[in-house]
Amino acid sequence: MLLGVNIDHIAVLREARRVADPDPLDALGICKRAGADQVTIHLREDRRHIQDDDAARIIKLSALPVNLECAIEPSMIDIACELRPHRVTLVPEKREEVTTEGGLMVTRDQSRLKEAIKRLQAEEIEVSLFIDPTLEAVRASEALNVEWIEFHTGKYANIYAMLYSNLGKTHHTIPELDLPRKVLKQMMDDELRNLRLLSCDAMEMGLRVAAGHGLNMQNVGAIVEIETIEELNIGQSIIARSVYVGLEQAILDMKAKLIR
Ligand code: PXP
User: How many of the other CB atoms lie within 10 Å of CB of 142?
Assistant: First the structure.
């Protein structure tokens, strides 16, 4: 299974002090050495972590394919068309969110999506849509003729955290998920079954399937078992572990979890 390493969180650390390091560019060689298959970066409209200059340097110098995440805004599509990364993943963006909290509203944003996809594909950039795992979103993605979809695994990760993490009650208090274990276990099984069925449907429609958000060394195993998911994009948990074990080891360890 392919691993895209989301290196945004290196820029998060840098921007916390508005200094020059750590430079996410320095991660490229390490990602390649550790066996990552792709580097993922998110150029947000508010430039809260990755900056224009980071995106330009990373896309120019990376030996690995670069997956640029951005919003559907025409100004962001201008930048993507100019930088020409290997892939663009279109994501929803809200300024007030801490991270990308849900998938695109694929059915609502049809005309803006169509225009963005047309422009990107004209530059021979493959396009992925970051969507919630629903049949409606998969069908709408198929109709939009994109190469990839990426399922948002945040719901699965949240249920897992509430079920198994010791920190669940203190760090991940999600009131809606404050449910008896039996109910949470059923919800997790349902969510995994949903991801499995939808990945199959998507593959049969000719879409390539990626997934990501909130995945870590503990919860990734059940997702790896879904054979129709080709690729995972993982950021926060790899960069968090790298503080203690180093980035190369953190990627090697995650890559080992992705062996089928
Ligand atoms: N995939 C997409 C489209 C994302 O926006 C993100 C970051 O929110 C990720 C994957 C990685 O998520 P995480 O940092 O939680 O691993």
Answer: 16
